[in-house]
Amino acid sequence: MIAHVRGPVAAVTLTSAVIDVGGVGMQVMCTPSTIASLRIGREVQLATSMVVREDSLTIFGFASTDERDMFELVQTASGVGPKVAQAMLAVLDPDRLRQAIGQGDLATLTSVPGIGRKGAERIVVELKDRVGVTTIAASGAPAWRDQVHEALLGLGWSARDADAALERVAADLEPGASPDVSTVLRDALRTLSKAR
Predict the structure, then answer these.
(1) 17: CB partners within 8 A, 6+ apart
(2) Which residue has the higher pLDDT, 148 or 134?
(3) 140 and 191 share a domain?
(4) What is the pLDDT of residues 34-87, one digit of tens each?
(5) Model pLDDT, residue 196
(6) C-alpha closest to that of 102 among 66, 133, 67, 139
(7) What's the CATH number where 174 sits?
(8) Could you list the residue range(s) of the whole structural domain that residue 115 is in?
(9) Which helix (H) or strand (E) holds 52?
(10) Of 62, 86, 103, at which residue does a domain stop?
(11) Which of 100, 130, 160 is the C-terminal boundary of a domain?
(12) In CATH, what number is assigned to the domain containing residue 15?
């Protein structure tokens, strides 16, 4: 997979940019906000996601890895392909998209061209536990707890499983303790593997 491209911008269109990578012009499909930030001749680095089809290889470029990660995540929902995923990020920034999915905000999701009410409901059902919007971040919890929670989500655990594991691990800690994040993560993973 091509994780990023870096080089001077050779050309810009309404939907894509050509980045000169070692003498090869790589066409990268971009959202309008990413396109707006590009200037011909200026060096740029874009996080990328490559979509392989029988008849094409398409590279999608993003201003940040967070955008790229959301692009890839939303495509795991049924009926969401790269074009709809790109439209979602053209309309909503990653944080707003994450929040809309996590809170089941169908009105916001249906503001994206190509997503109807049923599609929005399906996206919420399939991705709600995977977007990382939880009550932990809003509760003023210790930083180590947020870090371990995010790490567990990144490893593919649902928000509910991550919350439960953190509750079990936190019960064994001294009140007000600031434990080592890697130690707590290891303990949480042990707890989750026993629960399976």
Answers:
(1) 9, 11, 27, 28, 30, 34, 35, 38, 46, 61
(2) 148
(3) yes
(4) 999 999 999 999 999 999 989 989 999 999 999 999 999 999 999 999 999 999
(5) 60
(6) 133
(7) 1.10.8.10
(8) 67-130
(9) strand 43-53
(10) 62
(11) 130
(12) 2.40.50.140
Other Cβ atoms closer than 10 A to 120: 21
DSSP of 124-187: HHHHGGGS---HHHHTT--HHHHHHHHHHHHTT--HHHHHHHHHHHHHTSPTT----HHHHHHH
Q: Count the domains in the chain.
A: 3
Nearest one of 58, 39, 41 to 50, comparing CA atoms: 58
For residue 17, give both structure tokens.
Answer: 């940019």
**Whether the model pTM is above 0.85:** no
How far apart are alpha carbons 176 and 193 in whole angstroms? 27
82 and 112 in one domain? yes
* pLDDT attached to residue 153: 79
Region of poorest pLDDT, from 38-42, 82-86, 126-130, 151-155: 151-155
Name the DSSP class of 57.
E
